[in-house]
Amino acid sequence: MMRKRTLFFALLASAHALDASAAEGGDAQAAQNKIAMCQGCHGIDGYRMAFPEVYRVPRLGGQHPAYIVKALQAYKSGTRNSPTMRAIAASLSEKDMADLAAYYGSAAAVTAATK
Ligand code: HEC
Question: Which among 6, 22, 85, 94 has most CB atoms closer than 10 A?
Fold first, then answer.
């Protein structure tokens, strides 16, 4: 658990450094018709999902866009292991990832998630 947290913050720090490159060009508006497939797990009440119930779903609203893109790329390539997210990320293009990251990184997503 400790290790995972440390890794998380390390990734977060590097995501900040990469800010300008990775998430550039993301279009939060264009993400509106893509988030339906994410909201079932990530959107409700911020944190938890019903399936598979053993998992706690990380909150995406307010997450750093560059971090979201990196996470999705890692799931797609398999460097980050999650059967659930791998299947989903595999269906996303680079543009989809950038758009979704822009959406979830925006203030609107934070507000929606905490309502
Ligand atoms: C079936 C449920 C489900 C759906 C649908 C889903 N996710 Fe996930 N997502 C998860 C789970 C569970 C994790 C945690 C996996 C892990 O342990 O790495 C996760 C992790 C993530 C992470 C990493 C978050 C972090 O803090 O490291 C991102 C980014 C993400 N999902 C984005 C998305 C996007 C974008 C979509 C829609 C295209 C989506 N997810 C759809 C269940 C889901």
Answer: 22
